[in-house]
Amino acid sequence: MFKDRRNNHRAAILAALFLFVLVDFSQLYPQERHLGLWVVRNQMTDKKSIDRFIDFAWLNGFTDIFVQVRGRGDAYYNSEIVPVADRLDGSGFDPLDYAVTAAHGNGLKIHVWLNVYLLWSSDDRPKSREHLYWKHPEWCAVDENGIRDIDRSVDEFKKKGTEGIYLSPLVPEVRLHLIQIVSEIVQKYPVDGVHLDYVRYPKDSYDFNEQARFRFKQKCGVDPVLLSISNKSFYNGLDDQMLEQNINDWDEFRREGINEMIRGIRESLTASQRPVLLSTAVKPDPIEAKNHFFQDWETWLKNGWIDFAVPMNYTKNADKFEMITREIDSSIPKNKVWMGIGVYNQNKFDAMAKTMISLSSGFPNVVFFSYDTFADEPAYFKTLQKAFKIGQ
């Protein structure tokens, strides 16, 4: 019986796919549609690699390319404030300059993709002594046990369920440094957009950086470590309402640390007087993003601090994917949400189904992660094209 249900379900999906490809979605979405592609930094090391993904994007109807130019606190461009990426090995090659010229020559828009707070994720340490890992270890994130990210190994990060060493959003110097990075890029390169990734905390058990604790205690009169300890003796005699207020204040304090950085970058872009879009790659469920990673991206959109968000809706489960699209505040214009779809972790038919769900849910703009899959499997994108009615 289970097998029959599974076969019936599969047949229903195939029937939906057949009907879907007969629909001309251009009539449903009269506004400009964006088809985006994330390109990871391993493709940004030489001219031939860049030419290949530019050609692929142009030939297959993409409009926007998100090229990773800051991976782990480094630069895939010429910078006076950030050390060059180890992969470039002092070659003098400027990948961003070459990519911008090639993309614009083919009518494509280029967004510089920056991993913001994630600083390092390897047991091999940065070669350059100018890297923030060496220059400012005191800027790095700290967990509720007082352990600094910078003191952990890769195995320890895996056990903890985090990606690596993070900078602290609550250290003012970090915010100023990141704003300076964006300002330098925008002043030097005619990019079309700035795309921020890892604009969040590793977990809700961060950040107890010494500066963060000091600043919060100055503001609210309590060391936030006391709000997380397992020994509840601190709570004795404390009014429940006051305790709840302290916890809420600590959460909002952490949330505001990221908000300040987002607003600062927006102000910097406005001051540049250049037509540069600001976007963020975000945790797809807005409630989880806000409450567990302090990444309040719906507020960023509502206040106009960013131009669009790209929820990384990489789940392989179609029902969960669709559920997340329904979680997004309906007051936010759907063209301000570019749906991120993973192709690295599912087959082309499953990815096509997610594309169908996005379009049928009213989200006209889609970004695929990442180009590597299309480069490895040339036939993959041909299937996805059927969902867009492009390239035919």
Written account of the structure:
The structure is a single chain. The chain has 392 residues and is of the alpha/beta class. It has one domain: Glycosidases (TIM Barrel, Alpha-Beta Barrel). Helices cover 42% and strands 12% of the residues. The strands form two sheets. It has an eight-stranded parallel sheet with strand order 8-7-6-3-2-1-10-9. The protein has a two-stranded antiparallel ribbon with strand order 4-5.
Features:
single chain, TIM Barrel, eight-stranded parallel β-sheet, 14 helices
The total of helices stands at 14
CATH-assigned fold name: TIM Barrel
Number of strands: 10
Radius of gyration: 22 Å
Uncertain runs are 1-30
Short description:
It contains 14 helices and ten strands. By secondary structure, the chain is α/β, with parallel strands linked by helices.
